[in-house]
C-alpha cells in the first residue's frame, strides 16, 4: 500500500510540474475544446445536447458568454438558451468572452491551483506515514 501511495504521489508531483510548465498549451487546448463544443451547440440538431451542456457549464462556471471570434461577437437568438441572462448584458458592456476568462483562470488563479496541490501533497504524505506505521505495527504484532 505504501508503494502504491509513493507511486501516486510521484505521478501527482510530475503532473503538477508538467501542468505548470505547459500552462499556456493547456489553456490553448481548453479554448480549442470550448470552440468545438460551441460549434456543436450552434447546430440545432438533437445530437448536440452534449455540446450545449458543455457550453452551459463553461458559461456558468466562468461567468462568460461566447468565444473570442466573429461568431461570438454577433448577438444571435441562440444566446438565450446558452448563456445566463445576466451574462448576455455583461458581454455587451465589458466584452466578457470565454477565451479571456480561460486565460484569466490559468494566469490569475494559478495560485489557487497551487494551494490545492500543496494540500493534496500534505495529505498524501500523512497517508504514507500512517501506512508505514500500520505496516510496522502489523510486522511487530505477536498475533501472527
TrEMBL record:
Pfam families: Tetraspanin. It is found in: Cell membrane. Gene3D superfamilies: Tetraspanin (1.10.1450.10). The chain crosses the membrane at residues 110-134. It is a multi-pass membrane protein. InterPro entries: Tetraspanin/Peripherin (IPR018499), Tetraspanin_EC2_sf (IPR008952). Keywords: Cell membrane, Disulfide bond, Membrane, Transmembrane, Transmembrane helix. Its main location: membrane. One of its GO terms (cellular component) is plasma membrane. This is CD81 antigen. It comes from Pterocles gutturalis (yellow-throated sandgrouse).
Amino acid at each position: 500500500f505504501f508503494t502504491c501511495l509513493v507511486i501516486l504521489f510521484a505521478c501527482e508531483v510530475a503532473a503538477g510540474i508538467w501542468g505548470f510548465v505547459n500552462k499556456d498549451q493547456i489553456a490553448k487546448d481548453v479554448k480549442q475544446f470550448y470552440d468545438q463544443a460551441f460549434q456543436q451547440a450552434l447546430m440545432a440538431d438533437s445530437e448536440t445536447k452534449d455540446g450545449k451542456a458543455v457550453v452551459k457549464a463553461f458559461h456558468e462556471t466562468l461567468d462568460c458568454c461566447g468565444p473570442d471570434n466573429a461568431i461570438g461577437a454577433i448577438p444571435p437568438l441562440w444566446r438565450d438558451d446558452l448563456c445566463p441572462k445576466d451574462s448576455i448584458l455583461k458581454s455587451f458592456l465589458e466584452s466578457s468572452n470565454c477565451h479571456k476568462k480561460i486565460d484569466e483562470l490559468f494566469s490569475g488563479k494559478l495560485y489557487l491551483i497551487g494551494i490545492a496541490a500543496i494540500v493534496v501533497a500534505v495529505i498524501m504524505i500523512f497517508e504514507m506515514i500512517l501506512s508505514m506505521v500500520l505496516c510496522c505495527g502489523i510486522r511487530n504484532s505477536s498475533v501472527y
